[in-house]
Amino acid sequence: MSAAPITFFNRITRRLETEAVYGEGFLRFTYESPLGALPLHSLVKRAAFSSWYGSRMDSPASRAKIAPFLATYDVDTSEFAESPDSYHTFNEFFYRRLKPQARPIFPGENVITFPADGRHLVLPDVAACGDFFVKGTRFDLHALLRDESLAARFAHGSMLISRLCPVDYHRFHFPCAGTPGPSRLINGPLYSVSPIALRRRASIHWENKREITLLHTPVLGDVLLLEVGATCVGSIVQTYTPGTPVEKGAEKGYFRFGGSCFITLFEPGKIQFTDDLLEHSRAGREVYARMGDVAAHALG
């Protein structure tokens, strides 16, 4: 069984770091062991399993998990909008709000910010990517979008993949100003989006349950925003109002319990990602950065 650690570049500390994976033993057994294939396909990927686990995180008894979680993962409670003692369930803690000053939004209409806290990977040209997590695997945009017209428009677009771990802040935000349309649900299984799983099944992003929103912007044209569910994500909750203009950094929604993923897709020739994202993504390495920090700049 492979036990390769998950390393990433931390933009805040400017160091390469090793990820502390929540439930690592279970993930490695499920995705790296032949014996794990049976529970993976018969139970773990199914919505019923995630719904059951999510309901456990909504129970009053789950409140007892908060303090050990905070201690184990050294979560900064000074950022919380409410006291850690105020949460009645683990899920309330999980999709907590932060103080506005905890995530300042980088100004400038030509600046695109990260939509969520997490570990980020970029594809400057989706069509030119021939090694998506697994050598020789292309990112299947047609399967992801389930819309031939959109897939053609964004075929050579630029993609930002933001992976949220259970230890992260789990609300997601608009990376630029614009007017969002309604979200469209595409049902699917709920595989883990951890690199442990993606190294074995690179197609998870375009297989899992997901929601797609088209954001009309004055600077970048149309931008696609996708929330991708994963194992133990009970639901994706949208809090924005379709058709109402939003400012950069405005809240779009939140994930309930579990690791998850947010994908931002730009039309071709519209943006340039920051140098650190390009450098580390070429090496197959994610960059940890927080919502509101700079992800890219508009071209032209």
Automatic annotation (TrEMBL):
One of its GO terms (molecular function) is phosphatidylserine decarboxylase activity. The keyword Lyase applies. InterPro entries: PS_Dcarbxylase (IPR003817). It comes from the Bacteria. One of its GO terms (biological process) is phospholipid biosynthetic process. Keywords: Decarboxylase, Lyase, Pyruvate, Zymogen. Pfam families: PS_Dcarbxylase. Its EC number is 4.1.1.65. This is Phosphatidylserine decarboxylase.
